[in-house]
UniProtKB/TrEMBL annotation, chain A:
This is E2 ubiquitin-conjugating enzyme. Residues 2-150 form the UBC core domain. One of its GO terms (molecular function) is ATP binding. Its EC number is 2.3.2.23. Belongs to the ubiquitin-conjugating enzyme family. InterPro entries: UBA, UBA-like_sf, UBC, UBC27_UBA, UBQ-conjugating_AS, UBQ-conjugating_enzyme/RWD. The keyword Cytoplasm does not apply.
TrEMBL record, chain B:
It comes from Marchantia polymorpha subsp. ruderalis. The keyword Transferase does not apply. This is ubiquitinyl hydrolase 1. InterPro entries: OTU_dom (IPR003323), Papain-like_cys_pep_sf (IPR038765), Peptidase_C65_otubain (IPR019400), Peptidase_C65_otubain_sub1 (IPR042468), Peptidase_C65_otubain_sub2 (IPR042467). Residues 288-325 are annotated as: Disordered.
Length: 194, 325
């Protein structure tokens, strides 16, 4: 059984300082086990300025088992699959502990973006490039950030504008979009129902 | 995990959920073999286990029988120290009905809670684990609504939810104690691994299934103020190459009054802990603390009766300690 009260406490905590921490979480379709996390790219890295979405699935034994996390936004990084966003990070496997939280896990992902571990790669091609041709790696990673991690945020502005045109306030539109992971239809539904 | 190949390596590498599923399969197979804590078995089962084995083990098992009479096995899932500690301590309270001790440990629990918060742990990450342990403490005292007997205690300690929650609480307490006294623990940790205190707690204390050794035991015993005896059953022999006395070590928390026999007695075989029972406890009804004999006056006779075996244990211990020293 998923420890619902624990998950709810975690969500409150994340929401409380999401502006400071640079990570946030939104629940998908009222299913507490399915969430979408958001990480801002760390400053001074090829990921700077990007906003990265992470699919989060909580197994029923959470917090005794790690959350399953996978990048939705395409990322060029030695420890993230360039194909499917799968992540290689010890705390999402055997080094997970119930002392950790969804927030600390997302912060660890953010830290992983800052300090790749090419010796324990998820994506061998990226890792090879990182080790043998660092300049090209940085260039590719930056290009991927520009292409895949920024369009979403531009799109968000347009989506907010659209909803505002329909007569909703800007703040409400923004938070509705955020809670639906940027899905316009979902946000509209939410705004209409609430 | 490194590979020079291109896209193929990603397919070869098991995905995280596959690795986890594999771990689960191994644990599930173990679970079928043994509960978190097994039944109390006579010590002769150990002798049977080593019947055709190493002669040093055989000699030691025989000597073990002079002081200990029974064993209760714990599942070997990396949490055996914590599960053994949990059961052994709760059973001790159940038998002694020692409310004073429960009040004492509750103060230590509060101290640990404070330490965790000061160290930056958020309360919601440990409060559920803490309250489950406090519930268990309450349930082993008599006259409560939730009071249990030994069979119910065994049942509870075999319940995954209860057992895992208490194990996790102990891991929090252990980690907090190590971090709080980092200077004290650092040299021991450096002796065990290449990690600093912070890393050690993160990778070897807080995750479930990480095995315990003397650092963990010292920290938990100190933090909760509970003396622990660990009896070592291994192939080591004395300096003369013949001495097969069984060594033990008593983990005594600071300010702890000297005890004849710690409430928690564990048998250590390389990589694993089980629970041991001394002659003293065997076949004896619950004995109240000496300062509260008015509760159960009819047990006075029994208390006197047990004095003889206790004496012999003391003798055995002092001999062992003399040899160990």
């Amino acid at each position: 059984m998923l420890d619902v009260s624990r998950v709810q406490k975690e969500l409150v905590e994340i929401e409380r300082d999401k502006n400071l921490s640079g990570v946030s979480i939104a629940i998908c379709e009222d299913d507490l086990a399915r969430m979408r996390g958001t990480i801002t790219g760390p400053v001074g890295t090829p990921y700077e300025g990007g906003i990265f979405s992470v699919d989060i699935h909580l197994p029923s034994a959470y917090p005794f088992e790690p959350p399953k996390m996978q990048f939705i936004t395409k990322v060029w990084h030695p420890n993230v699959s360039s194909q499917n966003g799968a992540i290689c990070l010890d705390i999402l496997k055997d080094q997970w502990s119930p002392a950790l939280t969804l927030k600390t896990a997302l912060l660890s992902l953010q830290a992983l973006l800052s300090t790749p571990e090419p010796d324990d790669p998820q994506d061998a091609v990226v890792a090879q490039q990182y080790l043998r041709d660092y300049a090209t790696f940085v260039g590719t990673a930056r290009y991927w950030t520009e292409t895949f991690a920024k369009r979403g945020s531009l799109g968000l502005k347009e989506k907010v504008a659209k909803l505002v045109e329909m007569g909703f306030s800007e703040d409400a539109s923004k938070s509705a979009l955020e809670s639906c992971g940027g899905d316009e239809n979902g946000a509209l539904e939410k705004l209409c129902s609430g | 995990m490194n590979s020079d190949g291109g896209g193929a390596s990603e397919e070869d590498r098991p995905r995280d959920d596959e690795i986890l599923a594999f771990h689960h399969a191994i644990r599930a197979a173990d679970a079928e073999k043994l509960e978190f804590v097994g039944d109390k078995e006579p010590l002769s089962v150990l002798a049977a286990e080593y019947e055709a084995g190493n002669p040093v083990f055989r000699a030691k098992v025989e000597k073990l029988g002079q002081t200990y009479v029974a064993i209760r096995r714990a599942r070997g899932d990396g949490n055996c120290f914590f599960r053994s500690f949990m059961f052994s301590y709760l059973e001790h309270i159940l038998e002694t009905r020692d409310e004073t001790e429960v009040k004492r440990i509750q103060k230590n629990i509060e101290q640990s809670k404070k330490a965790l918060i000061e160290l930056g742990y958020q309360e919601f990450t440990f409060e559920d684990f803490l309250s489950i342990f406090v519930e268990q403490l309450d349930s082993v005292l008599p006259g409560r609504e939730s009071s249990v007997d030994i069979d119910q205690l065994v049942e509870k300690c075999r319940d995954r939810y209860i057992s895992d929650y208490v194990v996790m609480f102990f891991r929090f307490v252990t980690s907090a104690e190590i971090r709080k006294r980092a200077e004290f623990f650092e040299p021991f940790i450096l002796g065990l691994s290449n990690m600093n205190v912070q890393q050690f707690c993160k990778t070897s204390v807080e995750p479930m299934g990480e095995e315990s050794d003397h650092v963990h035991i010292t920290a938990l015993s100190d933090a909760l103020g509970v003396p622990v005896r660990v009896v070592y059953l291994d192939r080591s022999v004395g300096a003369d190459g013949k001495n097969t006395d069984v060594n033990h070590h008593d983990f005594l928390p600071p300010d702890c009054p000297t005890v004849e026999m710690p409430p928690v007695v564990l048998l250590y075989r390389p990589g694993h802990y089980d629970i041991l029972y001394t002659r003293e406890v065997q076949n004896l009804a619950p004995v109240p603390r000496v300062e509260e004999p008015q509760d159960l006056p009819e047990l006075k006779g029994l208390q006197e009766a047990k004095e003889t075996p206790v004496k012999s244990i003391q003798d055995a211990n002092s001999t062992q300690e003399a040899i160990a020293a």
